[in-house]
Amino acid sequence: MEIEECIAVWYLLNNKKKKLKRRRSLWVHPMLGLRESKGTYNLLHEDLLQDPSKFFNYYRMSIQSFEKLHNILENKLIKKDTTMRRSISSKERLSMTLRYLATGCSLTELHYNYRVGISTASEIIQETCKLIWIFMKEQCIPKPTREKWLEIADGFLKNANYPHCLGAIDGKHIRVIKPQHSGSLYFNYKHFFSIQLLAMCDANYCFTFVDIGDYGKNSDSSIFTNSHFYKNLSSKKLDLPNPDFCHKRMITKSHMLLLETKHLVYPSML
C-alpha cells in the first residue's frame, strides 16, 4: 500500500472515531442532582426577597418587576416533569437568565452556581430571552405616536436645552466568537469580531428604537439605512410632528435626530 493510501485510510478512521458519540458514564452528575437543595436559586432567592436593595443589586430589577415579568412569561416557561426528574421551575429559569444578563457571567459559572448543565443553561437563556423579546417589545419599546414625539422633543429641550430633537442615535459593538465560514463579515475596525447594536434614546436615556445583530464590519450609517426605523422614516410612516413656524425669525424649524458627526443625517426626511 502506498504511503498516500495509508495516510488517507488513517485520516478516515481517525475522523470516524471523532464522530462517534462518547457514551455517558452518568445520566446526571451527582453535583447537578443536588440542584434543588444546593443550587443558587433555592439557597438565595428567598433571602433576596427579604431585602429589596439586595434583590435589585443581584437581578438589576425590583421584586415587583420580577414578579410582573414572571407572570407574563410563566405559561411559556413551565416545562413538564418526567418520571426521571423534575423540571426546572419557571422562576428559576427567569432567575438564571436575568443573572446572566445582569452580570455577563459565563455559562460555566451558571453551571456551578445553579447546578445545571452548561448546555441546559444555554438553552434556558436563549429561550427566555426570545420570550422576553416577543412578549415585551411592544410594551417596552412601543412605536411612538405624534404626541409621544412631541413629549420626547420637550424632554430634550428641558434636560439638554436642545430644541426640536426627537432622539439621539449611536451604535455599540458586542463581542462574539467568530461564526464559522463568516470570513471578515463580523470583523470590525477595532480588530475583534462583533455584532452591532444600534439604538435611539430619549432625553432620559430610555430606548425608543433598537436594531441588533448586524455585521460588525458595517458602519453605523449603513446599519441605520438598513433598519426598519429608516424604512419607516423614508416612507413617512412614523407620524412625526409637523415643523414649527418661528414668528420671530419668520422661518420653519424641522425636528431632527442627533447622530455622531461621522454618521449620515437625512434632514429632508424629517
UniProtKB/TrEMBL annotation:
A Pfam family the protein falls into: DDE_Tnp_4
Key words, A-Z: Hydrolase, Metal-binding, Nuclease, Nucleus
InterPro entries: HARBI1-like (IPR045249), HARBI1_dom (IPR027806)
Primary location class: nucleus
DDE Tnp4 domain residues: 169-247
A Gene Ontology cellular-component term: nucleus
Cofactor: a divalent metal cation
One term of GO molecular function: hydrolase activity
Cell compartment(s), UniProt: Nucleus
Family note: Belongs to the HARBI1 family.
Protein name: DDE Tnp4 domain-containing protein
Organism of derivation: Acanthoscelides obtectus (Bean weevil)
Lineage: Eukaryota, Metazoa, Ecdysozoa, Arthropoda, Hexapoda
